[in-house]
Design goal:
12% of the residues are buried. The protein is mostly helical and 146 residues long. The chain has one domain. It is built from 5 helices and no strands. Helix 1 runs antiparallel to helix 2. The longest helix has 45 residues. It is elongated, with a radius of gyration of 23 Å.
Length: 146
């Protein structure tokens, strides 16, 4: 069974149950109550999304870029070879090359797996993590130097 379907079902059960209980107690219309609950949830989802966007732009991105830059510097990653490489291509090049140590290849592979995890967590967070990694690489090894 699809995990998204299971999550969706468990999200709707409390809404339906609460709507039914309210409709029974107050002689209300089940569908109207359910509609109000869904509208309230959508409203709060929009508020939370806007808040997370502001938080990312004002604070989060700088912090994640700095963390990525620290990893690049601490592990003595090589400078970018090709100007057009994004961060994923850069890591793949390190993982498949014979020019680098097993330890550096392992760090690159773990990093790529972390980015993949963020992609599976959600498209927004996946895009954010990739953008932060790309920016850290651009600081560490500017394109014009490659």
């Amino acid at each position: 069974m699809n995990p998204t379907f299971i999550t969706l079902v468990f999200a709707w059960i409390p809404y339906a149950l609460l709507s039914w209980c309210y409709a029974q107690i107050m002689d209300g219309d089940f569908w109207k109550v359910l509609g109000v609950l869904i509208a309230a949830r959508l409203f709060f989802s929009v508020i939370e999304t806007i808040g997370s966007i502001f938080s990312w732009r004002l604070y989060g991105k700088k912090k994640v870029v700095q963390l990525n830059l620290n990893i690049l510097q601490f592990n003595n990653f090589p400078k970018r070879e090709l100007e057009h490489d994004d961060f994923s291509n850069y890591l793949a090049r390190i993982e498949t090359s014979d020019d680098y140590s097993v330890q550096l290849k392992a760090v690159a592979k773990n990093w790529e797996q972390s980015l993949t995890f963020f992609e599976h967590t959600g498209i927004l967070i996946g895009m954010r993590m990739h953008a932060a990694a790309d920016e850290a690489l651009n600081i560490y090894s500017p394109k014009k130097i490659a």
